[in-house]
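Protein modeling request. Please complete all fields; requests missing the sequence field cannot be processed.
Requester role: graduate student
Desired output: 3D structure, token encoding
Chains: 1
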Amino acid sequence: MEYRVKIQYTDKIPSGESLLHFFEGLGWNRLNQTAEQFLKTEEQSWARVYAYDGDRLVGAARVVSDGVATGFLCGLGVHPDYRNNGIGTQMVHILLEECSQNNIYTELFCEEKLVPFYSKMGFQAFAVGMKKAPH
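Delivered output (135 residues):
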């Protein structure tokens, strides 16, 4: 389903319950995090952006950084009903601008299927990523 709506972007952190509902809707809660844990994750991020359709949280992304040299773009998600409308791209541009203004070199890790999405924004493959499986 494609929506043609006016999306509002903000760096104001949603409630923990909103974050929990949003990320669970994406299937991103394999660690069974609580609303408070999702909120803490967002609060401790260096930069963040959220996309809203009215009062509905439809997108989120953040940068984890030392605040001096390097930042990692992570947690970019868009509700499935709102994908392919430029929301993810706009959130990345907002965060890249924030990083650029602060001389933060931005990197990210992503699934292979997302490489074309990030390549369109100038990202290039440079390393092999690995992760530790959850307990």
